[in-house]
Specification:
single chain; about 250 residues; alpha/beta; Rossmann fold; 10 helices; about 15% strand; globular; binds thiamine diphosphate
């Protein structure tokens, strides 16, 4: 069969994405792989995957990958970056995490990595629930959203407010770049790749903690079709979670 789309070198040969139908993880990983290739980083990268659907990163990405315990991706990435520096080896280190991993169980590690200005990059997949374990309420579940642990909808009285991760990370002095993007249509996919590229370039330039949150579909747990999931991101979720750059240290110069 004629190949229509090229496969980035950083994607393992013959790998077929095994995510649920319509899940944005596959596209997110492909964009990350394209950026790694364009910045010539493949041979020098160590990727840190988290518990959750993001753990499958190492099945698809043809770079050195390590799996971190739940919530500890930024801490593991910090150790890897610093240990290599101590050996005078400059490695490109990024984490690929779910929102539950980054902003709930791992919030302390994540926030302090940003406050310390660790020179690592983070790709955080925000699907507004704990996807892998069956769609429980997560830190980013929006008010009114039905999940397996909030069957009547997230209620501010009982569950509090969701966290706006990209905005919070932008508040940290050690952060050089923080943006939120989505993959719900071509325009947004192109923009997402640009922001991922900037995020990775800033680490190469040694500017500190760089972060991209990707608002992602989860058709299985949202109980929607893939196209309705993207419609939900475009029409509802991006109103609550604005798609924009919240901090760019170079723009503020
Ligand atoms: C210490 C610990 N607690 C709980 C779990 C179970 N667990 C595995 S993945 C996961 C949810 C991950 O959710 P998220 O980070 O949002 O990623 P997603 O699966 O949605 O991509 C949980 C609770 C675990 N592996 N380790």
């Amino acid at each position: 069969m004629q190949q229509v789309y090229s496969t980035p070198k950083s994607i393992k040969k013959d790998s077929t994405f095994t995510f649920c139908a319509g899940c944005d993880h596959g596209l997110a990983i492909k964009l990350v792989a394209e950026v790694l290739d364009e910045l010539n980083l493949r041979e020098n990268t160590i990727a840190v995957a988290s518990s959750g659907c993001s753990v499958f990163l190492y099945d698809f990405l043809d770079v050195d990958c390590i799996e971190s315990p739940h919530g500890r991706a930024c801490a593991v990435a910090t150790g890897i970056k610093r240990a290599h520096r101590a050996l005078n080896e400059e490695k490109f280190v990024f984490t690929y995490q779910g929102d539950g991993d980054f902003a709930s169980i791992g919030l302390s590690e994540s926030l302090h990595s940003a406050l310390r200005g660790e020179n690592i990059s983070v790709i955080c997949i925000n699907n507004t629930n704990y996807g892998m374990t069956g769609g429980q309420m997560g830190p980013t579940t929006v008010l009114g959203q039905h999940t397996t642990t909030s069957p009547n909808g997230r209620n501010v009285k009982y569950h509090g407010y969701p966290i706006k991760t990209a905005e919070q990370i932008a508040l940290c002095d050690g952060t050089c770049f923080s943006a939120r993007v989505a993959l719900c249509d071509i325009k947004n996919i192109i923009n997402a790749k640009e922001q991922i590229k900037k995020c990775f370039e800033y680490q190469k330039q040694n500017l500190g903690f760089s972060f991209v949150e990707i608002l992602s579909s989860c058709p299985t747990n949202w109980k929607l079709s893939p196209s309705d999931s993207h419609k939900k991101i475009k029409e509802e979720l991006s109103e609550i979670y604005p798609l924009k750059v919240f901090k760019d240290i170079k723009e503020n110069d």
